[in-house]
């Protein structure tokens, strides 16, 4: 006997279909689309598209750059699918530097990125220590607690910070979690001034994390790189060493992103590339 759908069920399915149509339209255009272009591609009224984009953005399924009218698929899809293409540019460039950093410090290293009103772990290289911190690729993290995410929150626009607080609040995970909005904003200012974030047992007892922003060649913060481990191994005496190693790794990612986007230097028929002959080194200009 066929079961007939109620009007409520039909409306829910229609709503789901419209959301998927928007995501599929963005999938076809990795360079991004404006709301009007999405409406044309998906066959949905523009007013409806705007309403769906707001909700999809809040969930991290769609993202946009401040000041831009274009939308792209969001990294929250990483937590749904388990992964996005493994060789995405940022992850592909950062992974070897994360591995070197993890081996150098013997601690777990994370690469995180803003996803809606949360952060998401794009990649991780685990420590070889017996006692270590483990994170799944795609795990979602709160922006306000823990250095790996707070270093990202620090570079959001003030109105974006307020939107995060309104949307998801400031849940407490331990007695060290910052739950007061004014105190959080003061700490975010400190992160911007220092250029790094440190978290002591804010998400889990006995855990310390230290993070720095990863910038693209234009200077925009595109991710955070974080060293995380047991508090007893990441004492104050190691902080300068960790910060120095983190700075080298994040600078290297920025440099390699610039080189990757510039493309290879074509060799001359009579010798090495011009930049090597002129400088006597293979450093990028």
TrEMBL record:
Residues 273-285 have a biased composition (Basic and acidic residues). One of its GO terms (biological process) is negative regulation of DNA-templated transcription. Residues 13-75 form the HTH iclR-type domain. Residues 76-259 form the IclR-ED domain. The keyword Transcription applies. The keyword Transcription applies. Keywords: DNA-binding, Transcription, Transcription regulation. InterPro entries: GAF-like_dom_sf, HTH_MetabolicPath_Reg, Tscrpt_reg_IclR_C, Tscrpt_reg_IclR_N, WH-like_DNA-bd_sf, WH_DNA-bd_sf. Residues 254-285 are annotated as: Disordered. This is IclR family transcriptional regulator.
């Amino acid at each position: 006997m066929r079961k007939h759908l109620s009007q409520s069920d039909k409306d829910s399915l229609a709503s789901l279909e419209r959301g998927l149509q928007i995501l599929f339209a963005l999938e076809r255009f990795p360079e991004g689309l404006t709301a009007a272009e999405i409406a044309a591609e998906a066959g949905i009224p523009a007013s409806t598209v705007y309403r769906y984009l707001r909700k999809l953005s809040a969930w991290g399924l769609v993202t946009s750059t401040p000041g831009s009218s274009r939308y792209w698929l969001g990294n929250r899809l990483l937590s749904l699918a388990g992964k996005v293409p493994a060789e995405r540019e940022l992850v592909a460039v950062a992974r070897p530097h994360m591995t070197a950093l993890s081996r150098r410090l013997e601690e777990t290293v994370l690469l995180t990125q803003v996803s809606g009103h949360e952060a998401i772990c794009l990649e991780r290289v685990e420590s070889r220590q017996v006692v270590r911190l483990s994170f799944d690729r795609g795990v979602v993290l709160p922006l306000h607690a823990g250095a790996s995410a707070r270093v990202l929150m620090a570079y959001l626009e003030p109105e974006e910070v307020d939107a995060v607080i309104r949307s998801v609040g400031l849940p407490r995970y331990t007695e060290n979690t910052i739950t007061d909005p004014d105190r959080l904003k003061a700490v975010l200012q400190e992160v911007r001034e220092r250029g790094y974030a440190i978290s002591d047992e804010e998400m889990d007892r006995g855990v310390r994390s230290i993070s720095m922003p990863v910038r693209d060649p234009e200077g925009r913060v595109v991710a955070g790189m974080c060293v995380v481990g047991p508090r007893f191994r990441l004492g104050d005496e190691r902080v300068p060493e960790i910060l120095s190693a983190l700075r080298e790794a994040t600078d290297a990612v920025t440099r390699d992103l610039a080189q990757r986007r510039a493309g290879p230097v074509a060799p001359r028929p009579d010798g090495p590339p011009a930049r090597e002959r002129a400088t006597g080194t293979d450093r990028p200009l």
